[in-house]
Amino acid sequence: MGVKVQVIFYSLYGHVYRLAEAVAEGARQVPGAQVELLQVTETLPAEVLEKRGAVEAKKAFAHTPGRPGKSRSLRNKRSQIRIARLKQRSYLTQRLITLRYRVSRRCRSTFAET
Fold first, then answer.
1. Higher pLDDT, 93 or 13
2. Is the pLDDT of residue 93 over 70?
3. Angle (nearest 5°) at CA 24 between 75 and 42
4. 73: pLDDT confidence band, cut at 50, 70 and 90?
């Protein structure tokens, strides 16, 4: 039974693409290996790619199929949930610090009276 290998890469200017090709070529030398070269779907807006001068470079490996995976909306939803949890954690941490401060003030005032 052959080995299945997926070489998944993200490249803006093509440097990582060339590395991924070399890795895939090496994996193809293994007898019975099924090698697939896939690229991560671009997440940067077209304006950013233009400003960075990456539009022409990305055309060199545009023929490489994208990696099947989660949709962008699902990733955005997960990011929103993660941010909400961090905000909640930040609020709870701040609340805990406030409560500790109040308790320590009460302890100091109690010991000062005795």
1. 13
2. yes
3. 25
4. low
In terms of Cβ atoms closer than 10 Å to its own Cβ (0-12, 13-18, 19+), residue 38 is middle
Q: In the block, which residue shows the tokens 């100091």? A: 108
Q: What is the DSSP string of the chain?
A: -PPEEEEEE--SSSHHHHHHHHHHHHHHTSTT-EEEEEEPPP-S-HHHHHHHT-HHHHHTTTTSPBPP---HHHHHHHHHHHHHHHHHHHHHHHHHHHHHHHHHHHHHHHHHH-
Opening angle at CA 109, ends 105 and 110, nearest 5: 115
Query: What are the tokens at 105?
Result: 């003030």
Block residue for tokens 């290996």? 33
Burial class of residue 37, CB neighbours in 10 A (0-12, 13-18, 19+): buried
Distance CA(13)–CA(61), nearest Å, equals 10
